Amino acid sequence: MNTMVLIAGILAAMAALGHFTMGVKLYLRPLLASDMDTIPKKVMHTVFHYISVYMTLSTWMLIMIGIRGEDCMFDPTLVLAFIGMNYALFAVTQILIALTSKISGALFKMFQWIFWILIAVFTFMGINAGC
Question: With helix as H, strand as E and coil as C, how does the chain read?
């Protein structure tokens, strides 16, 4: 068992649960109900579900690698590095957008970066834990 990767997977599952509950309620439904032009609205609807697919698959991979880490029948390093870098870059992107926005307290109102950083850190720690 690779405990660090399993923790990353559990955090990713929590983030995915938030995405499918709070994300739908607070972001997707209001977007779809908005007066925005139909094409950009549908593009953003699609982007929301691109993230849904990525979060679901990466969560599953992290949990499976975390549980089966001792098998060492394969080298999960590339998969873990890819997932870790994605979440790290999600965090950087969100922090930059929050800090350059004119929203008061944006860094705390756009809090998802905290999950992204934690998932990335535990994933990278899991790479170093090895088999």
Answer: CCHHHHHHHHHHHHHHHHHHHHHHHHHHHHHHHCCCCHHHHHHHHHHHHHHHHHHHHHHHHHHHHHHCCCCCCCCCHHHHHHHHHHHHHHHHHHHHHHHHCCCCCHHHHCCHHHHHHHHHHHHHHHHHHCC
Cα-trace Rg, the chain: 16
What is the separation, in whole angstroms, between the first and last Cα of the chain?
Answer: 8
Whole-model pTM: value is 0.83
85 close to 117: Cβ distance less than 8 angstroms: no
Q: Tokens 């950009």, residue?
A: 40
Q: Rounded distance, CA 37 to CA 28, Å?
A: 15
Kindly report, residue by residue over 6-58, the tens digit of the pLDDT: 999 999 999 999 999 999 999 999 999 999 999 999 999 999 999 999 999 99
Residues 6+ apart with CB under 8 A from 125: 4
